[in-house]
């Protein structure tokens, strides 16, 4: 495999030049920047690319016209803009990745098919501002030179690091697409070969007959020039038949060949299918042992029919062959001319023809999905991935405040889908149209498989294929991860530094959405266009420019680039090793590394958020200790919990230290920064780090968007209502909150905002009722934790008021119209952080992240509390319940520093965790309804 | 309290008229901090019986009998078979030395009787062609028979074979049955209590004979209970509470409970002015052997069996009629009412004896009846120092209809049933959370870590 860094290093020399400053160069302020915006803007790199979004380009190296682009995904001319696809195709196809070895290798008499492994290269074109992951592959074409047609699929992006750091993932997905294409191609190729063989056999028979006629005509003709020519021709045809039969043999033995490509996807099911397919083929081959037996039947066919029914013909042939050559032929074999046409005369097959159409479509589908999954900038992708990885480790408390990972899993699985769903798709297809191909493995599959899933469904079939592969691509190599974090930390910092201007990308996008008729893609808000628009819209302060400049500097650190190459090298090693055996990484490895990421990122952030320019070397050295520290400490948390729980004294810190370390550190960091200066800038920066550390609420793009919007509502609520803290406390401590109002929209908005605070809201928010216009009952209270209630002045209304007053002990009532709240008094400090109406946070998404980090810390504390043995059960038999009670109180008050009311939050969360742990299947709505008898007080604005 | 919700335009009049005490939302002594709503019935749930330590059966007007696990709130069995409302339900325990098995006997308005196995949900026995619906059931475990009462009194053996029966001449039929010593039964029929005796002949056939008819009540008898081995008590619609000797069926005490508005009224006036009978109707009687707790109208009345005096009372304990009561201990009691609430009370000494009593202090008024001299004369003088108060310690609000009945499973749970078709399982939240923690660590150990 060609190491991609070489290629990139070559194209990236300008950046190297930039980062090792020439002492004699002009000071920056005197130099005229090449791209005025480029240096002051973290998105500068993308700004001069001629396309707006990443896209996938498929090109081929045509033997007639050279490199040419075939299609782009998304198939939209706007995507590429003025970007010259032809030129770029030339660039990416000009990489001679592996000389196709064609022709007659010494020692064999027949032409060999070259089984070329795919190659993966990262290329850059700094002039165009385009970088690409390029995946070369070859497809077989009987008519092509050497039977091969080189193609490539490229993921084109303006952000080079995005490609570099997503290399594994890109490689995996493109490999899958490539395998899909190649599988279809092999099928089509075999089909073509068979047709050719048929033609050859026919030709052979015709020639034989002619020869026989000649022979009958008399011996004088035997040695005439014509006869000799005929005999030669016959010999040629025979040779050709043998060659083609050999080719058929080769192509059918494709799966027996060892794969050197670590990314070569081979689904076990498919392999077995292909093996059986080969058997069928070989049987058939034996049947055709006498290639000349064909003559009797096809001989009389009119030769003039030509290529009219080509497509139909092949179908017929295959069917006919399946049925054992019983039926009358409607396909007329062609007489093969002795000399084939010149290669420039013939029309080359299109990609679609080269591959089976179904496979082609599946591939396109796969690539579309790939394109979709890589939308957004690197930072976004990384945090999302970190989120997922971490949230998988947090199974016990995830249900509390986070979106369900189920769809994420599907999403992850979705990357596998088309590959195997392809088979299903073919299944469906074959049900409609009888399979035209002899080598159809799916025929066998039909009866052995479960009912075919439509491709739109998330296939579960893929789960049993390539489980190891999933694992692998999720985990990737440790070195990769480490680098990843450094990169992403910079990225995080970069993107959040722009927040200092007072608007985040997400909200900016929201704002934009109102102005623009067409709302931009949620992920595209970081694309240069949107960025520039908003840059122009807002007046950027000087300090913003300053800081972002510093950040930009950090972006282009040579250190990181060096590490890229290091990474690549190490990954190469890894892959080489992995090619031999299963290249799986212990899943245990992941967590320490991931946490290490967060930690290092954390340290990194605070380092980087300093306004002055930080030397790169020190940056590096700063990040390293953080990593080693965490890697050293983290495994403690990996020990089975019981080991930590056998602690006698409540004051013993060791379980807490082991378990709470990351959160605690982060928490300290957050409080520290927010204490130092409560500006939104540091807040957002710290939430940025927390966001990476606390995988919260990144289920799907849409829901994330909704939740961010809800975050805006929540922020508004917090700023507007001085008793917001009490309301939030009610929700978090499990007391049902009824939002009472006459205006439905208002109540719904309020409920949507407050729903962020409902612990364990359920998969689809079952515990929240946005709008209720009838009196509620106790059952409703048990089911819902947040209710929007209509205030009406009718008899219904009075009965509603009756139910309100009747159940007043179980609920808190927030009157949206009169802005009052009736709930138990809360004087705690735990929520001051998220419910400060003088907060400096201005944007909903920022507040949302801030909120998520706080809630995540709460969940972590609740987890610790729940699973700490001595806080709930006596350590020795002599201890009474009051000792345990005292210990629990001591833990809550002194170790966690929670007051009476704050403890209620933790107790409630702990109760939810316990219930969830004991009955994972049962939704918490079915569980019991807890409350306590306290007086309520009345808050007004 | 909710004036602010109404926006200041409400006329809050009726609520302030009734002097029902309200404890408010702070109830430190109320340990029921967790509840679970059990759904399953389609009509009023009237009866609850405890099967064992963790099971209870509920029955109601929908003819369904549901068996619940009160630890989990799970519905264990659904006993279907009766086409009309259930009129009586009782448990029937067969103890054959080593194992004891509890079955359920139900009676329904469809004039059938059924024996159910609550473990399997099977209808073991059924008798469907009764002449009249059965209104009450009594199991005489000592004799191995059970008795059904309605318009006729029937005695059945374990295998649902009719041993003997006796027709009654009363219109209302038997409304309550209790067991008395010496194989006797007391049956409440309208205003009378009839004593029957069961006699076993030599050929082990059983016969029932009416021995005595006690007609001292002046109104319909609503409640009939055993107090202890030597005493039983009855209460009537007119507020008469009579304590009887269980052996010779003499009146030991007679109390006429009248809720009196004012101490100054003359006795006769009080009786004449006695308001609607339901206000002083004895709906329910319960006892722990030492005290008798009577639900009188919407009030509660605690009577000491030993001193034959009133211990404590509260005229207006609920907003509406009290339907069921229970003495939890010597000083704690519980009541449920048509107003949909369950209230917990504590019998407390008066904080200061010298403190002027409330207006209803002498609301309870006892007198001896001149025409019946069999019983000892009741005390006319109320011992003021002995009177204690019933203090509300907590209330459970959850049902939206009248709470018909409740069953206590000690510290485990309290089950209430109501006309709103629901059962509610009330639990001690702290205890439950402790139990859950135990289960959590047990599961953690089984799983070998998280």
Automatic annotation (TrEMBL), chain A:
It comes from the Eukaryota. Its main location: cytoplasm. Pfam families: Folliculin (PF11704). Residues 46-914 form the UDENN FLCN/SMCR8-type domain. Keywords: Autophagy, Cytoplasm, Guanine-nucleotide releasing factor. One of its GO terms (biological process) is autophagy. Residues 297-311, 529-541 have a biased composition (Basic and acidic residues). One of its GO terms (molecular function) is GTPase activator activity. Residues 296-325, 475-559 are annotated as: Disordered. Residues 312-323, 542-555 have a biased composition (Acidic residues). This is Guanine nucleotide exchange protein smcr8a. It comes from Collichthys lucidus. The lineage of its organism: Eukaryota, Metazoa, Chordata, Craniata, Vertebrata.
Automatic annotation (TrEMBL), chain B:
Gene3D superfamilies: YVTN repeat-like/Quinoprotein amine dehydrogenase. The keyword Repeat applies. GO terms for biological process: regulation of autophagy. Keywords: Repeat, WD repeat. GO terms for cellular component: lysosomal membrane. It holds the Pfam family Beta-prop_WDR41. WD repeats lie at residues 57-78, 104-126. PROSITE patterns: WD_REPEATS_1, WD_REPEATS_2. The keyword Ligase does not apply. InterPro entries: WD40/YVTN_repeat-like_dom_sf, WD40_PAC1, WD40_repeat_CS, WD40_repeat_dom_sf, WD40_rpt, WDR41. This is WD repeat-containing protein 41. It comes from Collichthys lucidus.
């Amino acid at each position: 495999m060609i190491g991609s860094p070489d290629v990139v290093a070559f194209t990236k020399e300008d950046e190297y030049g930039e980062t090792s400053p020439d002492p004699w160069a002009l000071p920056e302020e005197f130099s005229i920047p090449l791209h005025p915006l480029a240096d002051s803007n973290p998105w500068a790199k993308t700004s001069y690319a001629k396309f707006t979004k990443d896209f996938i380009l498929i090109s081929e190296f045509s033997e007639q016209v050279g490199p040419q682009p075939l299609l782009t995904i998304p198939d939209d001319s706007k995507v590429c803009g003025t970007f010259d696809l032809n030129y770029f195709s030339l660039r990416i196809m000009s990489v001679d990745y592996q000389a196709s070895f064609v022709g007659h290798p010494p020692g064999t008499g027949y032409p060999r098919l070259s089984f070329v492994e795919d190659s993966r290269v990262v290329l850059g074109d700094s002039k165009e501002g385009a970088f690409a992951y390029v995946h070369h592959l070859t497809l077989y074409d009987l008519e092509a030179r050497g039977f091969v047609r080189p193609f490539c699929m490229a993921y084109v992006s303006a952000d080079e690091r995005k490609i570099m750091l997503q290399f594994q993932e890109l490689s995996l997905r493109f490999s899958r697409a490539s395998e899909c294409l190649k599988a279809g191609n092999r099928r089509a190729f075999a089909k073509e070969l068979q047709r050719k063989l048929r033609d050859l056999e026919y030709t052979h028979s015709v020639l034989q007959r002619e020869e026989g006629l000649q022979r009958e005509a008399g011996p004088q003709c035997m040695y005439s020039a014509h006869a000799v020519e005929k005999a030669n021709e016959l010999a040629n045809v025979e040779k050709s038949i043998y060659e083609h039969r050999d080719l058929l043999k080769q192509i059918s033995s494709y799966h027996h060949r060892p794969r050197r490509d670590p990314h070569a996807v081979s689904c076990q099911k498919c392999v077995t299918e292909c093996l059986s397919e080969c058997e069928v083929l070989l049987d058939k081959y034996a049947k055709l042992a006498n290639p000349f037996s064909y003559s009797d039947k096809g001989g009389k066919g009119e030769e003039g029919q030509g290529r009219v029914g080509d497509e139909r013909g092949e179908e017929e042939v295959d069917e006919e062959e399946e049925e054992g050559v019983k039926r009358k032929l409607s396909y007329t074999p062609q007489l093969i001319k002795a000399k084939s046409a010149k290669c420039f005369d013939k029309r080359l097959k299109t990609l679609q023809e080269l591959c089976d159409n179904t496979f082609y479509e599946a591939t396109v589908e796969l690539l579309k999905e790939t394109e979709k999954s890589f939308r957004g900038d690197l930072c976004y992708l990384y945090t999302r991935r970190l989120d997922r990885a971490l949230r998988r480790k947090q199974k016990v408390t995830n249900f509390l405040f986070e979106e369900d990972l189920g769809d994420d899993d599907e999403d992850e699985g979705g990357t596998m889908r088309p590959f195997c769903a392809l088979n299903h798709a073919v299944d469906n297809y074959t049900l409609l149209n009888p399979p035209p191909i002899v080598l159809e493995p799916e025929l066998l599959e039909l009866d052995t498989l479960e009912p075919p899933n439509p491709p739109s469904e998330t296939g579960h079939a893929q789960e049993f294929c390539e489980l190891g592969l999933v694992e692998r691509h999720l985990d990737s190599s440790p070195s990769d991860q480490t680098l990843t974090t450094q990169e992403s930390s910079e990225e995080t910092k970069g993107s959040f530094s722009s927040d200092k201007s007072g608007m985040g990308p997400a909200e900016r996008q929201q704002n934009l959405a109102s102005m623009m008729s067409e709302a931009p893609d949620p992920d595209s808000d970081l694309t240069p266009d949107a960025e520039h628009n908003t840059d122009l819209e807002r007046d950027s302060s000087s300090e913003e420019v300053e800081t972002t400049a510093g950040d930009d500097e950090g972006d282009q650190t040579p250190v990181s680039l060096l590490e890229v190459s290091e990474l690549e090298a190490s990954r190469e090693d890894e892959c080489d090793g992995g090619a031999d055996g299963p290249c799986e990484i212990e899943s245990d490895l992941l967590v320490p590394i991931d946490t290490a990421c967060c930690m290092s990122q954390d340290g990194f952030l605070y380092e980087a958020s300093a306004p002055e320019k930080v030397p790169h070397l020190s940056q590096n050295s700063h990040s390293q200790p953080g990593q080693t520290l965490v890697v050293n400490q983290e495994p403690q948390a990996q020990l089975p919990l019981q080991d930590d729980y056998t602690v006698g004294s409540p004051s013993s810190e060791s379980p807490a230290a082991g378990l709470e370390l990351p959160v605690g550190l982060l928490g300290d960091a957050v409080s520290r920064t927010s204490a130092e200066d409560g500006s939104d800038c540091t807040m957002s920066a710290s939430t940025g780090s927390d966001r990476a550390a606390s995988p919260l609420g990144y289920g799907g793009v849409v829901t994330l968007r909704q939740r961010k919007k809800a975050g805006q509502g929540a922020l508004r609520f917090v700023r507007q209502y001085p008793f917001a803290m009490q309301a939030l406390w009610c929700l978090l401590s499990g007391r049902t909150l009824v939002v009472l109002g006459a205006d439905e929209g208002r109540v719904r908005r309020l409920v949507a905002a407050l729903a962020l605070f409902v612990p364990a809201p359920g998969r689809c928010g079952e515990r929240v009722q946005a709008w209720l216009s009838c009196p509620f009952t106790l059952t409703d209270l048990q089911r819902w934790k947040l209710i929007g209630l209509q205030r009406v002045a009718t008899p219904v209304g009075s009965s509603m008021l009756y139910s309100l007053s009747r159940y007043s002990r179980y609920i808190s009532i927030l009157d949206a119209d009169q802005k009052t709240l009736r709930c138990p008094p809360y004087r705690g400090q735990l929520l001051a952080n998220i419910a400060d109406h003088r907060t400096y946070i201005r944007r909903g998404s920022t507040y949302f992240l801030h909120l998520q980090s706080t809630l995540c810390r709460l969940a972590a504390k609740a987890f610790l509390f729940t699973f700490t043995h001595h806080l709930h059960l006596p350590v020795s038999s002599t201890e009474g319940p009051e000792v345990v009670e005292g210990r629990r109180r001591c833990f809550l008050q002194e170790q966690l520093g929670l007051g009476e009311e704050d403890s209620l939050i933790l107790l409630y969360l702990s109760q939810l965790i316990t219930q969830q742990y004991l009955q994972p299947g049962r939704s918490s709505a079915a569980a019991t309804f807890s409350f306590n008898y306290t007086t309520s007080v009345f808050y007004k604005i | 309290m909710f004036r602010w919700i109404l926006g200041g335009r409400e006329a809050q009049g009726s609520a302030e008229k009734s002097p029902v005490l309200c404890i408010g939302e702070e109830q430190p002594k109320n340990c029921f901090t967790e509840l679970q709503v059990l759904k399953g019935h389609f009509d009023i749930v009237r009866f609850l019986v405890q099967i064992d330590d963790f099971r209870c059966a509920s029955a109601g007007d929908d003819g369904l009998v549901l068996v619940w696990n009160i630890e989990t709130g799970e519905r264990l069995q659904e006993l279907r078979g009766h086409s009309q409302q259930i009129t009586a339900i009782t448990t029937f325990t067969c103890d054959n030395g080593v194992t004891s098995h509890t079955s359920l006997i139900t009676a329904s308005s469809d004039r059938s009787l059924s024996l159910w196995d609550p473990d399997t949900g099977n209808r073991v026995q059924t008798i469907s062609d009764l002449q009249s619906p059965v209104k009450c059931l009594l199991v005489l475990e000592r004799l191995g028979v059970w008795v059904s009462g309605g318009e006729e009194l029937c005695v059945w053996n374990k295998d649902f074979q009719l041993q003997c029966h006796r027709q009654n001449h009363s219109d209302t039929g038997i409304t309550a049955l209790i067991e008395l010593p010496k194989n006797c039964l007391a049956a409440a029929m309208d205003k009378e209590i009839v004593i029957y005796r069961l006699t076993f002949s030599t050929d082990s056939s059983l016969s029932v004979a009416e021995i005595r008819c006690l007609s001292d009540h002046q109104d319909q008898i609503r409640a009939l209970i055993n107090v202890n081995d030597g005493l039983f008590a009855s209460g009537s619609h007119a507020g008469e509470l009579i304590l009887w000797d269980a052996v010779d069926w003499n009146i030991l005490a007679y109390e006429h409970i009248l809720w009196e508005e004012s101490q100054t009224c003359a006795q006769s006036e009080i009786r004449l002015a006695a308001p609607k009978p339901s206000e002083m109707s004895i709906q329910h009687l319960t006892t722990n052997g030492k005290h008798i707790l009577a639900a009188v109208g919407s009030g509660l009345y605690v009577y000491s069996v030993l001193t034959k005096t009133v211990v404590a009372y509260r005229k207006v304990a609920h907003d509406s009629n009290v339907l069921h009561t229970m003495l939890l201990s010597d000083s704690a009691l519980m009541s449920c009412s048509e107003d949909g609430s369950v209230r917990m009370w504590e019998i407390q000494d008066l904080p200061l004896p010298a403190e002027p009593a409330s207006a209803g202090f002498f609301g309870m008024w006892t007198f001896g009846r001149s025409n019946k001299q069999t019983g000892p004369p009741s005390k006319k003088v109320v011992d003021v120092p002995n009177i204690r108060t019933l203090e509300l310690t907590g209330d459970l609000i959850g049902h939206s209809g009248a709470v018909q009945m409740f069953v206590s499973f000690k510290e485990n749970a309290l089950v209430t049933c109501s006309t709103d078709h629901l059962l509610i399982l009330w639990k001690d939240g702290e205890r439950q959370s402790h139990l859950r923690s135990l289960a959590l660590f047990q599961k953690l150990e089984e799983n070998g870590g998280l």
